Amino acid sequence: MLQRQQATAIIAARKKIVEGAVLMVDDALAQLSAREIVELDQDKKAAMVSNLLVVLCSDKAANPIINAGTLHN
Predict the structure, then answer these.
(1) Rounded to an integer, what distance in angstroms lies between the CA atom of residue 67 and that of residue 54?
(2) Domain for residue 17, yes or no?
């Protein structure tokens, strides 16, 4: 019974974390668009959403990565 309660609590906590992360990602995209900071196509937006969700939902600290590539093809 205790394991079932613990599992339920973990699921509820993870659900809250994901809900918060989705709201933060949505807000970030809205602010970037509203302030015309960067214009993202669907592929770049999907990559950004994926990266932000991984960082925000992770239970470990994120390590910065320097992108030496370019945004232009």
Answers:
(1) 17
(2) yes
Q: Are 25 and 53 within 8 A, CB to CB? A: yes
What is the pLDDT, as a whole number, of residue 18? 94
Measured in whole angstroms, the distance separating CA 12 from the mean position of its chain's CA atoms is 18
Banded model confidence at residue 68, pLDDT cuts 50, 70, 90? confident
**Is this prediction's pTM over 0.85?**
no
The Cα 36–Cα 23 span in angstroms is: 20
The separation between the first and the last C-alpha atoms of the chain, rounded to the nearest angstrom, is 56
Is 62 among the domain residues?
Answer: no
Total domains in the chain come to: 1
Could you tell me the two tokens for 46?
A: 């999907």
Strand, coil or helix: 71? coil
69: in domain: no
